[in-house]
Amino acid sequence: MPPTDGPFGPVMPTAELHIHIEGTLEPEMLVRLAARNGVTLPTTDIGELRSRYRFADLQSFLDLYYANLPVLRTEADFYDLGRAYLERAAVAGVRRAEIFFDPQTHMANGVPLAAVFGGLSAALADGAARDGVSADLILCFLRDLGAGAAEETLAAALPFREHFIGVGLDSAEVGHPPSLFRDVFGRAAAERLRLVAHAGEEGGPEYVWEALDELAAERIDHGIRAMEDPRLVGRLRDEQIPLTVCPLSNVALRVVDALEAHMLPAMLEAGLRVCLNSDDPAYFGGYIDDNLEAVRRELGLSDAQMATLARNSFDACFAPDDAKERWKAEVDDYAARNAPAAG
Ligand code: ADE
Ligand code: ZN
Fold first, then answer.
1. What pLDDT is attached to residue 213?
2. Which of 12, 196, 248, 321 has the fewest CB atoms nearer than 10 Å to its CB?
3. Which residues line ligand 1 at a C-beta cut-off of 6 Å?
4. Ligand 1 mean position to 102 CA, how many Å?
């Protein structure tokens, strides 16, 4: 079962719905996998590797993220990556994880899809059995490789249909609008796959509109730039469309100037269904618990707002309704136990 208490007291139960498994590749594992697979890295010094994790924007991060991925070669590598994330997520209070992966990168690196699915699925099964974390996979299309490549990827992945529950859209946003992917998302919907898309991270509100109207996205990943468009905010609020917000990522990629300037409080104030996530925790300075702690500290979120984020995460997830209700009841218990004593 997942721990109910962390090193600093009780841990709030949450779902994590915006996590790229490749973005959990810590420098220590990078070095270990490089040695195991005979891959040469520019350096094996952990401190030096970590010191390179400073980014000017999304593209400068993606350049490093993709450059590190050739160390992932075998089913065992994908298992180890997934297993390490789920162990860490359990400590952070995660009950439910919906995990992105980027198959196009691995296929381009010569890795068979069977190794990717085999390793990650085995890690998810062990995460459920050993850590009590319910988890599923969401296959992301790399938008900068275009719609044709996305179609080919979906076709190649369909023989593994039982191993993933949905599709998403990630990588370099600006210049690669959601509308380009309408047909492939339609095909995914016909396969009863759930639909999510990164939009409104570096791209403007129009990318969020397109993700909703052209892709029928059920959740928007990031979506923070929606706040620039009051009509869009109204739509997101009225339809309670979930937004998977990643504050430490936004600071690391300079999408916001500083955590204190983050629009999360305004999003909550506007009644949006926002939840918190870590995106690529090995690169952005923390896992989901670090993100939660940072917004509590820097943005002064109240206990009630923290609990709202957790309830939203379960409302927004793709698990069965009975599990969602059970997890939300756990949040209520947590909130009640941690409420300041009356009087
Ligand atoms: N791939 C991994 N992390 C990403 C992010 N924050 N935005 C777009 N694509 C990504
Ligand atoms: Zn992301």
1. 98
2. 321
3. 20, 23, 58, 170-171, 198, 201, 249, 279-280
4. 10
* DSSP summary character for residue 47: H
Q: What is the mean pLDDT of residues 197-204?
A: 98
Please report which confidence band the pLDDT of residue 343 belongs to, taking 50, 70 and 90 as the band edges: very low
Residue 115 one-letter amino acid: A
List, in sequence order, the alpha helices (H) in 158-201: 182-190
Is residue 38 domain-resident?
A: yes
Residues with CB under 5 A from ligand 2 (ion): 279
> Has residue 276 been placed in a domain?
yes
Which residue of the set 16, 173, 201, 210 is catalytic?
201
Tell me whether residue 62 is in a domain: yes
As for how many domains the chain has, the answer is 1
Closest ligand to Cα 169: 1
pLDDT at 8: 44
pLDDT band per the 50, 70, 90 thresholds, residue 10 = confident
| CATH number of 307's domain | 3.20.20.140
Measured CA to CA, the distance from residue 189 to residue 249 in angstroms comes to 29
The residue type found at 77 is D
- The answer to whether residue 333 sits within a structural domain is no
State the Cα–Cα distance between residues 68 and 57, nearest whole angstrom.
18
Taking alpha carbons only, the member of 74, 81, 73, 114 closest to residue 99 is: 81
Which one of 202, 280, 283, 291 would you pick to mutate in the ligand 1 pocket, going by the greatest count of ligand atoms within 8 A of its CB? 280
Asked whether the beta carbons of 224 and 171 are under 8 A apart, the reply is no
Instruction: Give residue 339's pLDDT.
Output: 77
201 is catalytic: yes
Q: Which residue has the higher pLDDT, 341 or 93?
A: 93
> CB of 101 within 8 A of CB of 137?
yes
- Could you tell me the residue range of the domain that residue 233 belongs to? 14-317
